[in-house]
Structures are given as structure tokens and as C-alpha cells.
Amino acid sequence: MAFFRGQQGTIKFDKDAGGGALSEIAAVRSWSLSVEKESLEVTDHGDTFRAYVGGLVSGSGSCEVLYDAPGAGDKLDLFNEALTTEDPANANFELYLDESGDKKMSFAALVTSAEYGATVGEIEVISINFTANGTITSGI
To answer: How would you label 79-103 residue by residue, b for 16+ Cβ within 10 Å and e otherwise?
Structure first.
């Protein structure tokens, strides 16, 4: 039985659904994705117990990336995506559990925020938050 460790996780990103291949984002410290499904009540009149079915699915998450002053490319695009106005929410994410395999979650997203900061003597980390837009595909 294989177990996966945090250092094996990676992120691939492209700021535009039609922009071509996704690029691996170097120096990812962490990522998370929360998937939520609505529960819709379908209890019949006269039932003694409540009954439910699954409704719409949504997702949101975040990632932390070590800052290394990229001059261009998808890593810089990821850092700047929160600054895009009238964003069509078509940034493509692939969140991998392994660095060379295909265990991933894929989706288009709206980058909702980015947190930049610097602490003297420490590596700078940029935190990115996003909300999935449309289908979330699981390959895990």
C-alpha cells in the first residue's frame, strides 16, 4: 500500500482555458481543495424520517507558493490573477497528489484573493485563494 507525502504534491496552472498547456508551478508549499455538495430534502408528506438527495457541487481552495521573483510565465500569472478585473473565471488548475503520476483534481477557477507579505529572515510565501467554476474532475 502506497502512502503519499506532502512533498509529492504539485500544481499545474494556466491563466486562460484556451491558452494552451498547463505549466507546473515550482516551489509549492501546500494546496487544499474543499468540495461541497448541497443536500436537498425530498421527504414525502407523512414520512417519519427525513430523506435527502445530493444537489449542486461547488469547490474552493487555496495554495501557498514560495516567492522566487518570476519574470514571466504561469507562476507570475498565478500571482497576478487576483488583480484581473472582469475575470471570466477560466483559470485552469490541476492539483496533484503525486509529482509524476496522474492523481489529480482538475477544474477551472476564479482566483478570489492573494496575500503577499515579507518577514525579515524568512522565505516569502504568497497565499492564493480560488473558487471552482464549473465541473471538478477527480482523478484520485
So the answer is: bebbeeeebebbbbbbbbbeeeeee
10, HSE (Cβ side, Cα atoms, 13 Å): 15
* 138 vs 125: CA distance, rounded Å: 27
C-alpha cell at 59: 469547490
Residue 92: beta bridge partners?
14, 108
User: According to the model, what pLDDT value does residue 74 have?
Assistant: 87
**Spatial contact of 96 and 77, defined as CB atoms under 8 Å apart:** no
* Mean pLDDT along residues 28-56: 96
User: Which has more pLDDT, 7 or 41?
Assistant: 41
Q: How open is the CA angle 117-125-29, to the nearest 5 degrees? A: 160
